[in-house]
Design brief:
mainly alpha
């Protein structure tokens, strides 16, 4: 499992660099003369350009493996961030962010597919998905405040350059430290071209010809990412936070601390993944509604609660998707997940930027999440394939 540890380390640094931009990107765009509607467009375009990358990643990862896409995505993102440090107008920033959206579209499905193939059982897959969520959250806890502090000390240009060089360095290290998972040796019957002999069929999971994931399942990640896109777009504008980058960083950190809290509750992994996803999405919609109606609770507390719910949803969503997949074509199913998330991340900031003068963006997030919750019924959960014992079928791609 040494490769898993290295992968977690690289993911931490990569997520740290990427999340450090959240509280400083909007003030940076404003300093270049961008209007709120243009900032919403910029954030939406970043997610929109994820789509072609996600589509290419789905088939390419299953065919060529994850390592090459992890390495190239990290290095390319670092180079683009260095260029981003030297833009002089909002349109140049829009172009850089558009290209960044494409190159980073390969990172998430490649990492998730590689983690899934490192596992030897469904139980271990669930633990690795939870570990990925924990690493992601740990990085996002400190990175917004760190990014804001970095800008306050050295300015936007030097901060973006430092973050970009960090990504490039991690990308080159990944070439040598991340190893492909070993492939199981073929059985005697497989070597002779006959069907494999199973001594106890009840102990092995069925191998499906194609992922049996209903398209309706992707309504949840689409709605969740849409609400998060609205949240990340709106936070710098709440209470005129643009006047203090450090205050904005603290708001983002409150969300991450909440997620870290629930991710540390390992006993939650004992509950069904679908139930955790559905219930968490329902509670998340209520929290956005409470922000929209200005309930008498400090914003930091509400953001902490939103983070707690995210800490329940994110690993449960990935785990349930793995169960539905039947253990095949990990790259493809995670690319579909990324596509749904990219569409939601594109729609969210766009709606918030265009409609914030007429209606609270948080109410829009509430509506989107509630529609997804009602679209996926609670009493009739999506039935996964019959995996009586957590055994992972043999897959050819790595």
């Amino acid at each position: 499992m040494r490769s898993v540890v290295w992968l977690y380390l690289f993911l931490f640094v990569a997520f740290f660099d990427l999340h450090a931009q959240y509280p400083i990107l909007t003030p940076f765009a404003v300093s270049l003369g961008a209007a709120p509607s243009f900032i919403g467009l910029m954030m939406g375009i970043y997610s929109f350009t994820h789509l072609p990358g996600n589509i290419i990643a789905g088939y390419s990862i299953d065919r060529f493996g994850s390592r090459i896409f992890i390495v190239l995505s990290l290095i390319a993102a670092g180079v683009l961030m260095v260029f981003q440090a030297h833009v002089v107008n909002p349109w140049q920033l829009l172009v850089i962010r558009s290209i960044s959206g494409f190159v980073l579209a390969f990172l998430s499905p490649a990492c998730l597919a590689l983690l899934a193939r490192y596992a030897k059982s469904q139980t271990q897959q669930g633990k690795l998905m939870a570990g990925n969520g924990l690493i992601h959250t740990l990085a996002s806890v400190v990175s917004p405040a760190a990014g804001a502090y970095l800008v306050s000390q050295i300015g936007f240009t030097m901060a973006f350059q430092a973050l970009g060089i960090g990504l490039i360095f991690i990308g080159f290290m990944a070439i040598f430290m991340i190893k492909a998972p070993p492939q199981p040796a073929p059985s005697t019957s497989e070597q002779h071209g006959s069907a494999p002999v199973i001594t106890d069929p009840g102990k092995l999971a069925p191998v499906l010809d194609k992922p049996q994931v209903p398209w309706s399942f992707y309504a949840l990640p689409l709605a969740i990412s849409c609400s998060q896109g609205i949240l990340f777009f709106e936070l710098p504008f709440i209470g005129n936070q643009l006047q203090s980058v450090m205050d904005t960083g603290i708001l983002f950190t409150a969300v991450s601390l909440g997620a870290l809290c629930t991710l540390s509750m390992l006993f939650l992994n004992d509950y069904p993944a679908y139930a955790r996803t559905w219930i968490g999405t329902f509670i998340l919609s209520l929290l956005f509604f409470l922000i929209a109606v200005h309930w008498p609770v400090p914003l930091v507390v509400t953001l902490f609660l939103i983070g707690m719910v995210k800490g329940v949803i994110i690993p449960a969503l990935s785990h349930h998707l793995l169960i539905l997949s039947g253990g095949v074509k990990y790259g493809r199913i995670f690319s579909y997940l990324s596509i749904a998330s990219s569409i939601g991340s594109f729609i969210g900031p766009m709606l918030a930027g265009q409609l914030r003068s007429y209606v609270s963006p948080f109410f829009i997030a509430f509506l989107v999440l509630m529609i997804a919750v009602t679209f996926i019924p609670a009493r009739k959960a999506i039935t996964p394939p019959a995996l009586r014992t957590p055994t992972i079928p043999n897959t050819k791609a790595f």
